[in-house]
């Protein structure tokens, strides 16, 4: 029996650097998981290639796919749709390969409902821990600025509870190393490994 | 507030190579956890140093420590006591440092009861996965030999259920790399990290 792959979801507040971290992961030769290319209705930017950076679709095509249930998650940003084609994800997992999604928090929430066993990683900006220092050393910023930053940080932390792991994006290399360690560890969890050994010994 | 350290317990069937893996971990410069030296009543072997390899004690001293509740776990093997002094473990964890124990399965069971939040890693021999091949390719070994190996493997698998992670000791370097990844990941678990961020933002 083929062991199913792991669905790895990287998300976090916008601007945290999810895309940069994802690109670094997939530029490394020893990365053994597959990247699920998103679908979008926005126009390709200079140098972007269909089927590499995104699957570019018209609004009509995208909405037809939504109706057909062909999207694992989708959301609309600034007038454009972004989503994850479900077939590629399912087929790749069934082949026993890990699939990596880099998506917005709203999409991650939708995926969590469909794949409760997925591996959900929340990328946080280092400002979240620098925040404490700023609050403590006061005076350098107005109370209003501090309050705004505090509230923004609190909102980010509220989103954490849907995730399994939290990685601070202080440096891209550090974040990538941590994400890779999380994936290695997840494959070694007793709950995942034990049934395999048990099945092994039933072959008799 | 000081974050408490993590109690890391490496165990597994005897002969699996726990000691070799532990020595390799502590020979690496980037290892950031503390090794808890065991206590024993057995005589020092050639080259073994008190307080480095073991704390060597007399039987009377050891039994007094048991009565005083000074051992986190202990067991008797071939007429000698082996155990883990509890004070060092507690003090080190309280300083926020990770403590690493390399102990027998019987001791690990005792530690699990006292530290349910510890990180328990079960080292398995590669023979467990080779076993399947041997069963499948039959004929090379007698049915009795296969049955004996099957039963031994089943007993090992029964012990797994108390552990959080299972690492196959195919090569010492691989096992060490996996154990280090597990420790990195464990520190990034949302349940561990979230309270820290929440406390951070309450400082106002």
TrEMBL record, chains A, B:
It is found in: Cytoplasm. It holds the Pfam family Guanylate_kin. Keywords: ATP-binding, Cytoplasm, Kinase, Nucleotide-binding, Transferase. Its main location: cytoplasm. GO terms for molecular function: ATP binding; GMP kinase activity. Gene3D superfamilies: Guanylate Kinase phosphate binding domain, P-loop containing nucleotide triphosphate hydrolases. It catalyses: GMP + ATP = GDP + ADP. ATP binds at residues 12-19. One of its GO terms (cellular component) is cytosol. SUPFAM superfamilies: P-loop containing nucleoside triphosphate hydrolases. Its EC number is 2.7.4.8. Residues 5-184 form the Guanylate kinase-like domain. HAMAP family: Guanylate_kinase. PANTHER family: GUANYLATE KINASE, GUANYLATE KINASE-RELATED. This is Guanylate kinase. It comes from Robertmurraya siralis. The gene is gmk.
